[in-house]
Amino acid sequence: MYSKISRKIRKTLLEITSSKKTAHIASNLSIVDILVVIYRDFVKKNNKNEFILSKGHACLSVYCVLSYFKYFSKSLLNSFGDNNTVMMCHVSHKVPGVKISTGSLGHGLPIAAGKAFANRKIKIFVLLSDGELNEGSNWEALLFIAHHNLKNIKIIIDFNKIQSIDFVQNVIKMEPMSKKFRSFGFFVSSINGHSHKQIYQSLNKKNSKPHIIIANTIKGKGVSFMENSVLWHYKPPNKEELELAIKKL
Amino acid sequence: MRKYFIDILCKKLKKNTKTFLIVGDLGFNVVEPFQKKFPKNFLNAGISEQNMAGLAAGMASQGFKVFIYSIANFPTFRCAEQIRNDIDYHNMDVTIVTVGAGVSYGNQGYTHHALQDYALMRSFPNIKIIAPGDSKELERGMDYIFQKKGPKYLRLEKEMLPENVNYSLGAITDGYWRLLKKGKVRKAIVSTGSCIQKSLEISKKKQFENYYIYSIPIWSMKSKKIQKKYLNKFTDLLVIENHFEDGGFSSWLREANGENTNIKIKSFSISSDVIGKVGDQKFLEKKYFKLIFH
After folding, report:
1. Contact B8, B30 (CB under 8 A)
2. Which of A34, A182, B70, B251 would be a feasible disulfide site paired with B74, CB 3.0-4.6 Å?
């Protein structure tokens, strides 16, 4: 079931990215499985749960998932990036189902902390990229979340190992991440970010401490020639590449 | 002013229980009465303005009226993008409170002087700037904050300002000119914030004795368009602000005036020569308030 949904969403992602000639296909492909589980099992079922995409450039995958789960029409989805629409290419609260706009990195986590602090009865899911952890505001928020023991936040890190123009390890060394987060006072899980089962189990887990899930993902997941390549952070697939990519799914 | 702000906030909270005050590890000997009375509505977020601003936006999204409080440039410039994206763009009910308008932190130096904050805050389309010039304007400004949802910037003088008791004050709205003294000529002194005191001082000089005196305690990008109805009454304005002219209050009025050449606007603003100079507020204001013609 999950795999079918993920495959369908990846196909739509590729088609829209190709037709609109927009960037960030690989960043989108890496988080599809996480989003499908979050929306299907947590946000759609309980309107007290909220999701924030902090890596706002991967908004198309959120829009595809929202459209799949009938938050809005397919025609609205197909207007992605078009003139005079709300379908901004960084996640926008003007789009039905989206609560928080991001696009500049390092904003989602402090907002998530505020929501979780204000109302401990709600559950906040916030998805960050690995490169985004370069931003100092995240570390301010992490200190705060740990200090106030905000167990109602699930922080998911899309650890696909590539940031904008280079590999994470070549830019700013983030490892050992688990050790860093544990020393801050978090419960840390390291999972396969493409295993729906592992994603569900970790998101559903009850903890005595705030929980960070390091989701080991593959940038460009599902399309072999896009996987683990810096190029596809920016390049949209042309017609031939699109056909080939869909065959690879 | 800061202590009076806390007094008013304490009174308001009795009726508005979903109000929250967040401080950025500042406010010693000021915020304690609030903290003691309402510990569940108070938080010290630590020295982390970016997180504090994002946090405030998140709390406001859950229905709270949130105040974030710190000195001059810390909760404004340090977290400018969080104000832009998280607070203003989402139209969150967050009031950014700064203490230390202009050079009121005197010899603490340039890092603590608020000289460019209007320029930043007035560039956000939803934010209302509230710069009270006396205790009455602060009271009415706080009424405004509690009546209207949405982002605001409350700019406070460090010390208490005397109440201009001779001048009545009803409810104040965005862009409203508060009359402080009727004039005899079509000329006016206009100020915002604590510069009321300077207006009154200057009006004692023979050259200005027949001028009208006004204060504009609330202003914003949106209320620029209603300024013409006030501006058109005059041929000469002397605009006073404890801020650089560039991007400040007088620039706002000049933009509102547009290409109308029937009005001459002079700015009495703080010169950038103040940067790096040491002195108390009185000394710095005396030396670096400069008249600017265009």
Report:
1. no
2. B70
